[in-house]
Design goal:
The protein has a single domain, classed as Rossmann fold. The chain has about 140 residues and is an alpha/beta fold. Strand 3 and strand 4 form a beta hairpin. The radius of gyration is 14 Å and the shape is globular. It is about 25% helix and about 25% strand. A seven-stranded mixed β-sheet has the order 1-7-6-2-5-4-3.
Length: about 140
Amino acid sequence: MQYITNSPEQTERIGFALGQSLTPGSIIAYRGDLGAGKTAFTRGLARGLGCTEQVTSPTYTIVNEYLSGRLPLFHFDMYRLRSSDDLWGIGWDNYLDRNGVCAVEWSENVADAMEDAIFVTIEKISDESRRITIEGGDDLAALSL
């Protein structure tokens, strides 16, 4: 599935629709350059899950937890990790066992831990426009925009 958005709000709407269709244990693996819109997409994803907390980038904390929705959301930033060994070292298996949704920015740094993930690639077309490609995962059958 591919979408073109022309504002952060439109990017959030795509994330919202995906969030509504996710099930426990879903992994969202983001791909995209710095400033592409991964956190904006995650804001929508969180709203689609019913989370009420303010969503911010986990750049300095590695993971932010949002627990107010119908499923918990664990928002990871793997930019500073060198391998999936580092991911397992911070307790990745514990997050997977919590039956929430794991949204992983810079997933390419831990690619071998992204089995069965839904891949969301966000590309800048211009200052405001983005091409969002969503592929993989069983949850996509319920996605409607």
